[in-house]
Write a structure and sequence with these properties.
456 residues, alpha+beta, 8-stranded antiparallel sheet, 16 strands, 34% helix
Length: 456
């Protein structure tokens, strides 16, 4: 056993001892604040503790209105002001137990933390992780390959940002609904999907991983996007110029050193939304920073976050390049979950090939999927897609959406977007079939894979 392994084992045993002597204390207070429930957490401090607590609150679908965080030394004390999604106080009795289990039951090492924070079981599925360059029709090609390989998609989440795509897909065997664990079959699935991801342009950065086990979907998506450098502004060169609306909604992030205290102070201001705190804490954790103090305040539609951080080695940020990197990474973390396009909700009896058919129809009508959430509830498929115009930055035409709905089913696919109107435009635009162009390219690609018989 090497020195690192010996030291790691001693640290783990010491952590377990500290938790036994000082177990986490969680109190839920509905009396001190008129508008929110106060959740107070006191616990021995270890790396990732803040993320674990925020993850639990996020998974319980609680909205964090305010938070005050202090974790100097060997102890941390956090206070969260939370409501449900309707703005009401929370009276469920499992909050305290969930947080205590998150903080107290595990003794994992720092090396396993990156893949294990906020784990939810997926043992009944096989997990596929995909990342690479985004392009119109990519999701359609991925689902077509999985259908051809006799894989049933029971759940999936897809994010796109800055020309990159990351997705976590849960599959089972089409014949018996069990996890796929045959090594040869998994290797074939992985190689074919990698070929799809690479396409003609992404020869080096595309990546696939297949496992039978557990993961936390949104945690992994953040890690995959970060590893794929979606924060790199060089990726924006393939996009058109930034619009005035995008500039107005751009997050404001500042990073400065507090010399007298030895901290780096990160201030963030942006439009508030659910899971914002989880997204920013995830990113700081992935970047190997420790949050010692923080104040989170939501005033109306705006959110203000202030963090006092140091690197894991105890040092504040020491270079302009590192400062810029933190700014870009936090901006990316906020934008990844900001959905572009029209929200389409699909509810239908689940069947083999449903996702393949739906995404093919999107592709054939010139629509690109910017984000997707796929779930199966019993025999029902409940899916959400955000779609954009694949040919330009213009809004999706209402006649295009209605054509897609008619083909899929008006009662099956519904539009959930406040800005959407079914009124026809003043001038009927000529429907140059860029959708047909994407269709022919994708069909040629699938033909080369041997998944369709003709691309004519």
């Amino acid at each position: 056993m090497d020195h690192w392994s010996t030291s790691l084992g001693v640290d783990d045993e010491f952590e377990k001892l500290v938790r036994r002597v000082n177990p986490p204390r969680v109190t839920v207070d509905n009396d001190s604040d008129n508008k929110a429930t106060l959740i107070k957490v006191d616990s021995a401090n270890k790396r990732g503790s803040l993320l674990e607590v925020v993850q639990v609150l996020t998974d319980l679908n609680l909205i964090i209105r305010r938070a005050y965080i202090s974790s100097d030394g060997g102890w941390f004390m956090d206070v969260f002001h939370v409501t449900d999604k309707y703005g009401n106080k929370v009276h469920e009795g499992n909050i305290s137990e969930s947080i205590q289990q998150s903080l107290g039951q595990r003794g994992r090492s720092c090396r396993s933390l990156a893949r294990s924070v906020g784990v939810e079981s997926a043992a009944e599925h096989t997990t596929i992780e995909l990342s690479g360059r985004d392009r119109p029709g990519l999701l359609s090609e991925v689902f077509a390959v999985l259908t051809d390989l006799k894989c049933n998609v029971v759940a999936a989440e897809v994010w796109t940002h800055n020309s990159r795509m990351a997705s976590v897909v849960y599959i089972t065997d089409q014949t018996n609904s069990s996890p796929i664990d045959d090594p040869d079959r998994l290797s074939n699935i992985k190689q074919l999907l990698l070929y799809v991801l690479k396409g003609d342009r992404d020869k080096r950065s595309a990546n696939t991983a297949v496992s039978v086990g557990s993961t936390h979907t949104e945690r992994r998506l953040h890690q995959m996007m970060y590893a794929d450098r979606d924060y790199d502004h060089l990726n924006t060169l393939v996009h058109s110029a930034t619009t005035a609306d995008q500039l107005r909604t751009k997050p404001l992030v500042t990073v400065e050193n507090c010399v007298e205290k030895g901290y780096t102070v990160v201030n963030l201001s942006c439009a508030d939304r659910p899971k914002l705190l989880f997204d920013t804490v995830c990113t700081l954790t992935d970047m190997q920073y420790v949050v010692f103090h923080a104040t989170i305040i939501t005033e109306g539609p705006q959110a203000q976050q202030e963090y006092f951080i140091r690197h894991m080695d105890g040092c504040p940020i020491s270079s302009e390049a590192e400062r810029q990197r933190v700014i870009h990474c936090l901006e990316a973390a906020i934008k990844r979950r900001t959905s572009e396009g029209i929200r389409l909700e699909l509810c239908s009896e689940d069947r083999v090939g449903l996702l393949t058919d739906v995404t093919r129809i999107f592709r054939e009508n010139g629509l690109s999927v910017s984000r997707a959430e796929v779930t199966t509830r019993g025999t029902q498929a409940v899916n959400v897609f955000y779609v954009t115009d694949a040919s330009s930055s213009n809004p999706v035409q209402s006649q295009t959406v209605e054509a897609v709905r008619k083909e899929i089913g008006l009662t099956i696919l519904r539009v959930k977007d406040d800005t959407y109107s079914t009124s026809p435009p003043d001038q009927q635009t000529a429907r140059f079939s860029l959708g047909t162009l994407f269709r022919s390219r994708s069909e040629k690609f699938l033909y080369n894979l041997g998944l369709i018989k003709s691309c004519s």
